[in-house]
Specification:
With 208 residues, the protein is mostly helical. Helices cover 72% and strands 0% of the residues.
Length: 208
């Protein structure tokens, strides 16, 4: 009796192979033949999973986004008693990919983002990932404001002049976290320095 193929698992294996090769060579060095060899599948198996190389890259990009999103969600549910502000800090740190064990993932993510600048299909996937993360940040900021009685109030550092807009602040926080990824990768900041920048911003945004 022929062995059944787990197509979902095979697609994940192929996505992992794409990410490994992109980390080593950049996306321009990712070929279907090399992906097949790294994933230990045939070229035919790849072509049965993905109609084109672009479709394979889109799936791999979504795979990375799902891993990051899963870690963010795990941090949010790991300690239900934590404040929304603390949860926001954990989530932003995960998105910034500052830890050593996430360095390869950060390189691959930025390789995809760079390619998305010239690929509309990849750009749509990146935008969807950012939109989901931004929505999570906005929800946590709104909850943190409610915890401190500032849901419709004013920012403490402006003398009550400017209301805090959770979605605007979520956009700024996501852009900061994303930028810190690049600064660490190129060596402009150490992970500790980047973490300090992130947490200083959060302390100003949501003072205790």
């Amino acid at each position: 009796m022929p062995r059944q193929v787990d197509h979902a698992e095979r697609r994940r294996r192929i996505a992992d192979a794409v990410c490994e090769l992109a980390d080593e060579r950049g996306l321009e060095g990712v070929t279907l033949r090399d992906v097949a060899a790294r994933a230990e599948v045939s070229m035919g198996a790849i072509q049965r999973c993905f109609r084109t190389k672009e479709e394979m890259l889109v799936f791999a990009l979504g795979h990375i986004g799902e891993r990051i999103g899963a870690r963010v969600r795990a941090r949010l549910v790991r300690s239900p008693a934590q404040s929304a502000g603390t949860a926001l800090g954990h989530a932003a740190t995960e998105v910034a990919l500052l830890r050593e064990e996430h360095r390869a993932e950060a390189r691959v993510w930025l390789a995809f983002v760079a390619q998305a600048a010239v690929s509309e299909v990849l750009a749509r996937t990146v935008q969807a990932n950012y939109a989901a993360l931004q929505e999570s940040f906005a929800r946590l900021i709104e909850e943190a404001c409610a915890d401190t009685g500032r849901a419709a109030g004013a920012r403490a550092d402006t003398g009550g002049a400017a209301p805090l807009d959770p979605r605007r602040e979520a956009r700024a926080l996501l852009a900061l976290a994303d930028g810190l990824t690049t600064h660490v990768l190129i060596g402009h900041l150490t992970p500790r320095q980047a973490g300090d920048v992130l947490h200083t911003h959060l302390a100003r945004l949501l003072p205790q």
